[in-house]
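Thread: quick sanity check before group meeting

JM: Hey all, I'm pulling together slides for Thursday and realized we never actually wrote out the predicted structure for the chain we discussed last week. Dropping the sequence here so it's in one place. If anyone has concerns about the input, flag it before I start.
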Amino acid sequence: MQKLETSGIEMQLSPREKAIITFIGNRPGCKSGDIASKLGIPSPTVKKES
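JM (edit): ok, ran it. Output follows.
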């Protein structure tokens, strides 16, 4: 897992969470359905984790 510092708070990210964040960072304005289909993650999971 990778650590993410946000305003001095460290968060542990799972590989799936990191993939979602990277996807969103590279495609601002993308929809959760796009994330789910491109990353092979169920849509409800994407909505829960992002």
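AS: nice. DSSP finds three helices and two strands in the chain. The mean pLDDT is 81.
JM: adding both to the slides.
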